[in-house]
Every structure is written in C-alpha cells, then in structure tokens.
Write a structure and sequence with these properties.
Layout (H helix, E strand, L loop, with lengths): L2 H8 L38 E5 H17 L3 E2 L9 H9 L5 E3 L2 H9 L4 E7 L3 H12 L3 E6 L2 H10 L7 E6 L12 H13 L3 E7 L10 H24 L9 E5 L5 H7 L8 E5 L11 H5 L16 E12 L2 E4 L14 E7 L2 E4 L4 E5 L4 E4 L11 E5 L12 E5 L5 E6 L3
Parallel strand pairs: 1-17, 2-9, 3-4, 4-5, 5-6, 6-7, 7-8, 8-9
Antiparallel strand pairs: 1-10, 10-11, 10-16, 11-15, 12-13, 12-16, 14-15, 17-18
Helix pairs in contact: 4-5, 6-7
Length: 421
C-alpha cells in the first residue's frame, strides 16, 4: 500500500470532528494518542463510543490466515465491512490476495491508499463508474468485477479507452430469489461467452454469494449452501470445457461470506486441467461479533478446529437514568450501534474503574440516542455506571464512526482507526 496517505491518517489531528475522543489542545494524532495514557476504565473518553480491541483484531487476522493456509484458499476480505485503510494494510500484510468492495466509490478509496488489487463483487454499469475502472487501472490498481449478462459486458467494453489495461471479470452465478447473478445455465453461458468474445475483457472465472441462504434448521441451510456452491463450481467447469477461460492468466472461483466459508473451502473446487484460485470474501471475520456471526461462524458451529474468532467491537455507554424498576436508560442509540439484525448484547458493567460481568438483562429497544436496558441487573445500576455491550453485524457498526479508538486488553487507548464510508 501507499505509505503517504497512510501517514496522513496517522498524523491526522484527533479533534472535535471525531466523537468518542476528548477535545484537547494540542490534539493528539493516531500516531501519538497512546502517549496520552487514556483509558476507558478511567472514564477518559466521552461516551458513547465503540472501541476496537487491538488484540482481538490481530488474533482474528492470524486465524483467517491460518485457515486459508490449511484449506488452500486465498482471502480477499470484504472491505465494505470496515472501510478502514489501516485495517486493509494489516490484512494485506497478512497475505490477503485482494480487498473486496461492493461499489466503485469503495474501490476508489482502496486505490487512493495503494491497494494493489480490488475485487468489486458486484456489477458496474453506470458510465461514471465504468470510466473510473479504466482510470483506476491506469493508475496501477488491478480491478476485477462481476458480470451476469451480455448487456453488462457490452457496457464495460464500450467504456474502455484506447490503451486501457484489460478488465478481468467473473461471471456471477445467482439463485432463485437471490440478488444479482445469472440464474439459469443458458444465462450464465451467455454472459461467459460475451465476456470471452469482448475486446479488452478477460473472463477469469466465477463468483457467487451463499450468504443469502437462511433458515431455522442449520442442517437444511448447509445442504442448500452446498447445492448452490456445486452449481457455481459446475458453471466454471462448463466454461473451462468450452475454452472460455483460455485467455485468463489466473482462474478464480470466489464465494464465502463470514458464515459459510468452511463449505466454500470444501465444495467450491472445480475439477479442470488448470490451477484455480479459491478466493474467500469473508469480511466480518476481522472483528467477529456477539450476535449473527457468533451464531453462524464455522468456528462457532464447531465445524472447523483451526482456531477461533474473537469479538473485537465493544460499545461503551453511560447509564443516564433508572426511571422505573427493571429499566435503565443508556446513552447510546441508533446513531452509535448496529441494530439491523440484533440489538447490542450487554456483557460488562464498569463502576469506579472496575469491570465486572453484568447480570441478567437485555437491550430491548433503541431510539436515536438512547437504549432501553431491561432485566434484573438493571435494578443494580445507577446513573454514571457504564455498560459495555457486544454488537451484532460489524458492517453496520463501522459506518457510524469516522474514527474508532484502538484499545488493548486493559482498555487503554493505543491508537485509532479511520473509516472512509
């Protein structure tokens, strides 16, 4: 990655622009903030704040690196989870093959920080977005993207300027009631043939997304995931047999959200006469969580024994009021924490600098800036206590914070991470 923009982030003053940090004169920077000795347990940071456990992030990156090494897979973590160049750097240094994104806007951030390869796991059809792909590649960023129809291929081909580097594409394989992606064999083959025939476009493989498959019975869901991944694999095998991948300098089969990447590693291995790079796009593994992925991660389901992922995000908020028995009002809300899948999960209470497990209680509702904590443990809280919660779905946690404090196991601030949504 490019050192200059990363250095600019390290030297960015932590001032009034960033909630969750004290305003001091002179302000620290991420490079110097550890010198202030700030501690969440000592109450040095204004609440609410989501803190990022540095030890957990480091462990999670190492765990996924080990998983990929053991299972002969590459990781292209989905950057839209964090949109944090400082974390992208750590993931790339740990061997990530690329950074995945969902939009051209996100790809532009990666390119600005010198990410060498970006996989846009989406179709790009708008003129301005397609024009950037050419500019991004001329600037040194290798851009891959998805197609699912000849019309999309035609738009990519028409957007290319003379002398532009070739655009590598993967045919997205869809499913009934899914999102984008060619559903039927005929549509998949048509997209592949169009990409193979188009000047300046190189068909390099297939991509899918199994995360759309849900259900109450994990065994049924797993069977459906395996069936779908088998269809993705079969599509690549058809393309190879038809000679449609002959021009590819590297063949890729990609899938793998943060819940079923173990099945991707087991099932999505095409049998063709050329090497195939299996690329996982698991993004939430860098932080894990206390909700959705604690329930669904292969490590949590006991399906793999390659280590464990550790929840790295903690939401800290003050008890503002105890207006009635069994209810405490916390000073955090929808502006601060994710709520699209699960509400925050209370884990600890802090009083006078001491942290302890919290008793029986749950966050039952959120307003914009308030959380409703109910349960027997709420009766033991008083205004000024601090409740520490785990969160569910990291993708909608990072986007609420422009800067997150990095903290060590003792909750001392060791640095800060920018997000660029």
């Amino acid at each position: 990655m490019d050192e200059a923009p990363l250095a600019a982030l390290r030297d960015d003053p932590i001032d009034w622009r960033y909630k969750g940090f004290p305003t001091t004169t002179p302000p620290p920077t991420p490079a110097t903030v550890a010198e202030r000795g700030w501690s969440l347990l000592a109450g040095d940071l204004p609440l609410p704040v989501i803190a990022l456990r540095e030890d957990a992030v480091t462990a999670n990156i190492a765990t996924m690196r080990a998983f990929c090494a053991t299972h002969d897979a590459s990781l292209a973590p989905h950057g839209k989870t964090t949109m944090a160049p400082e974390l992208f750097r750590r993931q790339l240094e740990a061997g990530a093959w690329a950074i995945t994104v969902a939009t051209v806007a996100q790809a532009r951030v990666c390119a600005a920080f010198g990410v060498p390869r970006v996989l846009i796991a989406n179709e790009v059809v708008d003129p301005a977005g397609l024009a950037w792909i050419g500019a991004g590649q001329r600037g040194g960023t290798e851009v891959w993207l998805l197609v699912d129809a000849p019309a999309g291929v035609e738009r990519i081909a028409a957007s290319r300027a003379a002398g532009d580097p070739p655009v590598r594409v993967l045919v997205e394989i869809g499913m009934p009631d899914g999102r984008a992606g060619a559903r039927e064999h005929a549509a998949q083959d048509a997209a592949a043939r169009a990409a193979h025939a188009a000047e300046g476009i190189v068909l390099c493989g297939v991509a899918g997304w199994e995360g759309h498959i849900h259900g109450d019975d994990p065994a049924v869901v797993e069977a459906r995931v395996d069936t779908y991944l088998g269809e993705v694999r079969a599509a690549l095998e058809r393309f190879a047999a038809a000679g449609l991948l002959d021009e590819a300098d590297e063949i890729v089969a990609s899938a793998g959200g943060s819940a079923w990447f173990d099945r991707v590693a087991a099932v999505l291995r095409p049998q063709i006469d050329r090497p195939v790079r299996l690329v996982l796009r698991s993004g939430c593994t860098v932080t894990h969580d206390e909700g959705l992925y604690r329930r669904l991660s292969p490590f949590e389901r006991g399906r793999i024994g390659d280590g464990a992922l550790v929840p790295a995000l903690e939401a800290w908020s003050s008890v503002l009021s105890q207006p009635e028995p069994g209810l405490a009002i916390l000073g955090m809300g929808k502006r601060d924490v994710p709520f699209d899948i699960d509400l925050p999960v209370p884990r600890w209470v802090v009083r006078d600098g001491a942290i302890a497990a919290i008793g029986e209680c749950a966050v039952v509702a959120l307003n914009d800036q308030h959380a409703f904590l109910r349960g027997t443990a709420a009766d033991g809280l008083v205004p000024g206590d601090v409740v520490v919660c785990g969160v569910s779905h990291p993708c909608t946690a990072f986007d609420k914070w422009r800067l997150l404090p990095l903290v060590d196991a003792e909750r001392r601030v060791t640095g800060a991470v920018h997000t660029l949504f």
